[in-house]
């Protein structure tokens, strides 16, 4: 498999964790987003959305991190990323989606660029925007996880899964923008447990060959 | 089942289509978002994210539209929302996610409120922002669907599924903000086929009891 990745991309970070947890070897192809390498004709013919990650698996070209992680879980069932019961699966998915749909889209590179570019927003207001959505989103996730009866060392039970794959990159991203995460005690405890595992360590932005 | 819904919410619209396609009867409980009914203590105890849709199925309280739709597909397998092969499933999911993660989150009520509120953006610039993300996102979806070999009368083959459930509310939402959709010929053809089906017609915003 070949993963088109950028070390700071949360979407690519999710897929790197997933590949590592499944024990799937892969080739890494860095795409430098700040240098606009995602807008080359070659890359856009593969992904018209001009976003990483893209995963090539033989003739299959897969896009959108959640679709890729689901694909990996369906093609390599062990260890599973989701529980068996539909309601439990929906709960785990809803945690991942609370991050994928309510936090991350508001804070990725192209949105921040639009704020300071066409909208003429100041750097300070841009950072306030960033902090606002990360805190609001993580507060809801913290509340749901802290009162959950199914939480264990990880978001669901005592093995890492889909929700952790989405949570860890979002915490790293928030920290990079100096969001005060100290109030999210449940999330930080889960992060600590994740970061003890080589699958998460090797997927971290700082461990990537294209890290600056 | 009981669905907490707002007639204009794209997320709730998706779940209404899914329930109708599966032929599941449900009770509708409107939540008026502009009047901030999602911020009551009662509603937030159910969903700390203060967002619709929420689906109650017996003791299960489900949030996040994609998690709910997946839950319905897993508990009521007929008709299926996804194909069988993992790569095909990933393709269909990636279309739904291109809408759920790259278009809709930038344009929902709370984001538009933040733009004109804290960021002090003008109504005109807010509308430009809205049009920008809808067009950019739909262009990529149009390009992927128009060159797809698996597209039929619907996004995938000749039966409606997960991608259509996400596409139709996004087109309706864009139209409401006067986005010129005429260039998206593939998407409009699929929409026409969807809107011939009672499942889609009955889920439309204008058909809801809380429509204004």
Structure overview:
- Two copies of one chain form a homodimer.
- In chain A, 51% of the residues lie in helices and 8% in strands.
- Chain A is α+β, with helices and mostly antiparallel strands and 212 residues long.
- Chain A contains nine helices and four strands.
- Chain A has a four-stranded mixed β-sheet with strand order 2-1-3-4, with helices on one face.
- Chains A and B meet through strand 4, helix 3, helix 4, helix 5 and helix 6 of A and strand 4, helix 3, helix 4, helix 5 and helix 6 of B.
Major sheet details of chain A: 4 strands, mixed
Q: What oligomerization state is this entry in?
A: homodimer
Could you tell me how far the N terminus lies from the C terminus of chain A, measured between alpha carbons in angstroms? 24 Å
State the order of secondary-structure elements of chain A, H for helix, E for strand: EHEHEEHHHHHHH
The geometry of chain A reads as globular
Total of helices of chain A: 9
Q: C-alpha Rg of chain A, in Å?
A: 17 Å
What fraction of the residues of chain A are assigned to beta strands by DSSP?
A: 5-15%
